Every structure is written in C-alpha cells, then in structure tokens.
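A student in our group prepared the protein record below, which I am reviewing. Thanks in advance; the entry in question is below.
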Amino acid sequence: MDDLHYDLCVIGGGINGAGIARDAAGRGLSVLLVEAEDLGGATSSASTKMIHGGLRYLEHCEFGMVREALKEREVLLRNAPHLISPIECVFLQDAEQRPQWLIRLGLWLYDHLGGKKSLPNSHVVQLADHAFGKPLLDDMLDGIVYSDCYVDDTRLVVLNAVDAAARNAKVLTHTRCESLKVCDGRWRVTLQDTMSDETLDVSASMVVNATGPWVGKFLEGVGIGHRDPDLPMVRLVKGSHIILPRQYEGDHAYVLQQPDKRIVFVAPYQGKYTLVGTTEEEFEGNPRDARISDAEMAYLCEAVNCAFSKTVLPSDVIFTFSGVRPLLDDGEEDSSEVSRGYRIYHHNRYDPPFLSVFGGKLTTYRALSEAVVNQLMRLSGRVVEGWSAGEPLTGGDFGGHSLEAYMQLQRQQYPWLPMELLQRYIRSYGARMDYFLHGAESLADLGMHYGDQVFKVEVDYLVNYEWAATAEDVVWRRSKLGLHISDDTVRNIEAALAS
C-alpha cells in the first residue's frame, strides 16, 4: 500500500463534501478531498442561488428544517459577506392559490422561527403604489416583502475547499475513486486521475461518501451497502432555470405562486440578467446529462408571463442550466412535497468508519458538515468541538469592517482598478484578492490582458490556488464570466492554460 495516509477521505467535491473537508481539517484531522470532475460541477452549481429558510416547507410542517436553515442563513451571512448578501423578496399574493391569512401566518413564522436575526421582518406592500409593482401586470395588487439572501453557489463550494486546503487538507479534482477496501484496519482507496489516467493508492482511517446524486451509484460501484436493508433511498429530481435579459430595475426578487402550488423565483442575476427558476421533474440517468426540457422552458416562461407585463418567449432565453437534487425518498407521490432534509448514514457493518450523506440543501451545508464530523469524532474516540459557526470563510474577514467600508478601503488601495472590476474581485475573492493584487500599481502590473477585464494574475491565481484546470473551470465555476465575455477572451484563456 502507498504510504500516503489520511485520517479522513471525503469523496465528492460538492458543497457538502467541501464543507465536511473544511470542518474536519479545522479540527486537526489530515483530510483528503476527492472530486471526479470539478468542484461544484453538478448539483451545487445549479441552485437558485438563494440562502434561505425554505418558506414553502412550512406548508409541509417541516418546522425543524426551516428553523435550522434560518439559523444557518444568519451564520453564513455573517461569515461569508463577500459571497452572501441580503435580498428583498416580493411574494405576490394570489387568493386562488393560498389565502392571504395563510401567507401572513407563514411569513410571521418565517420571521420568528430562527431566533435572533439581522434581516428585517416581512411587511405588506400595495403594489399599485410601489416601485415593486412597476414591471407587473395591473391585476397584481398585493404583495408581502420578506428578506432572504443571495449567494454565488459555486464560489461557496470552491472557497470551502480553499479554506480546507489552508488548514492542510489535500484537494484532488478530476480524480475518480475506483475502489474502496478494508486492509489492515484502514480503508485502502484507489484513485485515478481522469486527465492523466495515472492511479494512486492511499489509505484512510475514515471515509465519507458525499457524492450527492451519485450517492447510491457510488456505493454500488465500490460494493458497499448494496445488501443493507436500512440504507436510505434517494429520489432524483431535476430543477431547471432560465436566464433572461434584465426584466426590471432594482435588486429585489419576486416569488410567484403557480397553479400546481409550486413557487418560482425571479431574481436579478449578474447585473445584466434575470434568473427564473426552478422546475421539478423526476430524473433518471446521469445527473451530468441533465438539460432543460421544452416543457420546463414553457413552464418558466408562462410563470413570468402570468405576473409581468413584458411577454417572455423561449427565444428570449440567453442561457439555461439544470441540476439534479438527491432528495430523501420519504414516499411522497409529489416530488415538491419530498423533504429537503438530510440523513447521515453510518455503514456500521464496516470498521473503520464509513459514512454516507443523503439529501440536504445548500443553506444547511455547514450544519450538515458539522454533524458529519461530530459523528466521526465520536466514532474515532476524539474530542474536538465544532468551530465553523464562529469562523469567517476564507476571504470573509474584513478586519471588523462592513462590506461597504471594506470596498471603500480597497478603492483607496487600488484607485486605478475600474470600479466594476474591483467590485467583482471583492464579491468573488473578498480579502483574498490581495493574493494576486499585492504590489500592483496599475493594470499593466496584472500581466497579460486576455480581454474583457480578465488578466493573467487572476487566471494564474485560479490555477494555483483554486484548482482551475480548464477554461470552463475559470469562466463558469470559479466565476460567471462566461455570461459576459467574448469567445476571443475564452480562447485566450484556453491558450494560456494549455501553455
């Protein structure tokens, strides 16, 4: 066996895997995080970009899950102010879908279930007399405004992995786990680099399967748990989104009630665009092959057209993305009623410890990660308390300053940076922007200009510190530059990475 040994090997580089690696590394464990493709390359990058309590889950009496999510919303807003920001959501009332009293009761609970919070309470607005009503149809008369948070979901994944690496975790992307076997009281893990085809054997005292929608397939592939009658089941549900040219002014979102009792979010996206989603369709097949269907496209366009005065057609759609959510199969017939909770399963037939993560949602990843590592601590006889609730995510420590004050300080430090670029750097990297800007005194100091305000120093940083290996990694997961930049800029990035 190779002499590379880790206390913990985490399989899966989505939000849960990255969060578990960060938490475990912060408690002193030697950690290996393995991702078959790229960090956040599947479900975690296909969310509605919201950190929220899950207002609609109150209808299904999931009060505990909503309470946990609301508490986590506060933790994440405090610890990752560069990635997460408050957003006002305008819930459009429709008496045919839900009575007004039910909506007000639900939002009152939403205001109070999570305990102490920094976001304002909900309030009623008369849309005819308010700027929020300007882009809407005339019969949209009443709304209730509540607050949640917006997040760059993929950067949340990447920065959790960066934070883990800063705590001495090893992160391997484009690396597939080929086999798991118990050998001499440890897990023997055989890995294959999918870009070079090289193989590597390592050993680990503990293993966590955090492969998201592949959780069951992974267990089948390595021959673990397939005969376990108590093994949880997951239900794969596809959610799709469309991106349109900006449909209205303002930084607020709209929450639209649909005839099927679902809700659809309409939110600002990347400054110039509007994001609309999500759908829910049962899914079979490889989650990486998920694509929007014609029916989903029509559903989302119709949702917009039933509320907004400007008609939207499928031909107006600039971009789409779809992701597959691994929901705990609780037997509900309607996928929209399936729990968004999670379960941490201990495969207790095996010693050393092996855990699998089933379900979960973006907002509660930190609490899930803490719970996983707590269980690993108990199983391994260690006593190290959780820490991540009180520690800023890498880049999120502004030295006691607010985001706005920190932005002003950076404006003074780098007055030669175009404001739009400065804002993007702060929103993407937070305090880590100094890793590649330190010592620079002009745009010329940022190295080769690839086009569209993309410079060599940033791309080099993404390669050296964030495991970017392809242009797609750079422009779609480490950023959303793919929506903004030209094909020539992408080709220049590709050429730089190939050299």
